Batch of 2 targets.
Target 1
Amino acid sequence: MADPIPFRPRPRPAARSVVVVGAGIGGLACAIALRRAGLTVQVVEQARKLKEVGAGLQLTPNATRILRDFGLLTRLEQVAVTPRSLDVRNGYSGASLTRAHYGPAATRYGAPFLVVHRAELQALLAEAAQAEGVHIALGSDLTAVEPAFGGVRAVVKQGENLVAHGADILVGADGVRSDVRAHLGVARPPVFAQRLAFRATVPVPPRHPPDVRLYLGRNAHLVAYPVKGGAMLNLVAIVRQMEPVARWSAPGDSAAVHAAFADWAPEVRRLLESASHFLCWGLYDIEPLPRWSSGRVTLLGDAAHAMLPFLAQGAAQAIEDAAALARALGRESDAATALKAYEAERLPRTARIQSEARRNSMIYHLSGAPRLARDLVLRRQGAGLLDRYGWIYGG
Ligand SMILES: Cc1cc2nc3c(=O)[nH]c(=O)nc-3n(C[C@H](O)[C@H](O)[C@H](O)COP(=O)(O)OP(=O)(O)OC[C@H]3O[C@@H](n4cnc5c(N)ncnc54)[C@H](O)[C@@H]3O)c2cc1C
């Protein structure tokens, strides 16, 4: 007689339902990844409307590969631009120091480099999440995270009312000033990088190539690349300032921008002068956290690993988090174990990127002999410039 088929109880999935706090790029990517893994997902977002916040984003292959897995790459490419090359220039003379073409690198890393307006990426993710059955509750400000019936619940303020959203797991994707992080008892005050970012979108000047241009100077740099299908140019002017700004993002002082770049190359000044106004961000990151998770609560995106934008990786890492969390929840049968596995996979990589981004914030703004040494290295790297970060793009 054949052996009886051994009884193997089907492992219970680690979780069936998730509440995500925050509908930024991280929260929405997380909602899509978890929904596709079969979980019920609801998102609570304090804003009443998903309006245009931020400006351009560079999306590197480690992020676009995941967006392709979500089935969103074709739609993304319709609103994004595929830039031709990264062109690093001396901010004062305008002369090119080095240039690396994205095309061959995209082939090497198996997915494209894209530039896109943040609002367009957020709208695309929100639409895709809703089409998959994710409920997004806008105007819902998190006030408490509480244990509930073997699970967890997010208590939010909706107008005058307190509403509880219960789930097996709660993901705090609520940005650099995360309330969920404070709830976990790993509060880390955001660290001011003594840098301000002035952002604007301007019409593309005639004959301007579809490149990501990085102009380097003393205590400042300017990044310019096309967005909105190539119709507009996104400008990010970073300047040094010791005093933090009072507000998180605020209308920028145009006179301060023009003063900071007064002795730069005419092409840089023309670009900045074409902006009708700037929005100003104080740049903050956080020190790597000792842990991201406790019980059934975890963190994702800037809430877990806010980083300086000098590697263009904040949104990309949030998207990587989303895919890793979905994998861990699919693999493990216990929620807390799954969250710990997710944290163990993600924390070392994001900590390394946080530290590398801080390093770049110094390298970009060098002056004197160190600047000459940096420019020499840049010239030598040439087309290999992008492969310096192969561990990020291929990982
Ligand atoms: C100048 C600049 C340039 C950048 N360039 C790039 C780039 O080129 N490439 C790149 O990958 N990244 C870039 N980044 C970083 C990127 O923008 C962020 O890392 C990314 O958007 C973080 O996404 P997130 O979803 O984690 O957080 P956020 O976008 O901050 O979203 C958090 C969400 O949570 C909501 N929320 C907060 N508190 C609550 C609450 N109590 N209740 C409910 N909801 C709440 C907020 O309203 C918000 O919608 C740049 C950043 C800056 C400042």
Target 2
Amino acid sequence: MLRLKDKIAIVTGGGAGIGKAVASSFAHEGARVLIAEIDPVRGESAAHEIRGLGGEVAFVPTDVSNLHDVQAMVNIAVKRFGGLDVLINNAAIQMHGRDARAHELSEETWDRTMSINLRGTWLCSKYAIPEMLTRGGGSIINIASPTGLTGCAPTYTAYSTSKGGVIALTRIMAIDYARDKIRVNAIVPGTTDTPMISTLLEDSETRAKLVAKAPLGRLGTGEDVAPLAVFLASDESGYCTGGLYLVDGGMLTA
Ligand SMILES: NC(=O)c1ccc[n+]([C@@H]2O[C@H](COP(=O)([O-])OP(=O)(O)OC[C@H]3O[C@@H](n4cnc5c(N)ncnc54)[C@H](O)[C@@H]3O)[C@@H](O)[C@H]2O)c1
């Protein structure tokens, strides 16, 4: 039995890393998936790969921080697939070398990070929710981060603050839409081996330090996160809303 049969899902940032693994697992479980991705090469190639595995998937070039892009992307999902059941707010950036301690941080880095990570999460939700209300329910899954809960990434002021905002947004939306049967949850991945942190991982000392922070003794992968996203998207999680779900190798517990 396919766990996401007849579900229609949008995965933002689905061209790489965690988003690509989630999009692939969703398609494998029977969902029709729209990848909303800013990088056309990544978006096309992820869609091509997933289609090759038999999945039903579309790619729409989208900047999640742009209202018109988001509005158009949601419209395309609804027109092409017939509605919307699941939104994964996964797209985000981490501005290595530019994010900094508060007094050293530029306005530009703060604004850009907030605009994609936090405003983008809100904007995609804003346009997805009316479609879910029409369907009588839905599931929104926000990808947060340990940095939104603890000071575990010194100097990443904008990134950490944006992820704290994503957690607050998850909670308020969970409460505001509970009676509408729209469930809103957040996944908190630990350090995950994806293009987002590839420059950090190139340095073997940094890699070893990051591995050492995870009691399970390794970095996470997109494939570690995807099964939890499948659960939260499926009807199996029908009594779960407002939750934060860790996939962090024990990092936050240590
Ligand atoms: N990698 C980690 O260690 C880690 C840890 C905790 C949380 N996260 C979170 O997990 C999520 C996925 O991260 P990842 O590591 O897979 O990142 P990634 O950089 O590997 O992939 C993110 C994708 O989002 C796309 N994207 C960037 N800006 C966009 C925009 N404005 N509009 C649409 N798409 C855009 C990128 O092109 C990329 O394909 C993010 O929310 C990230 O903050 C990652």
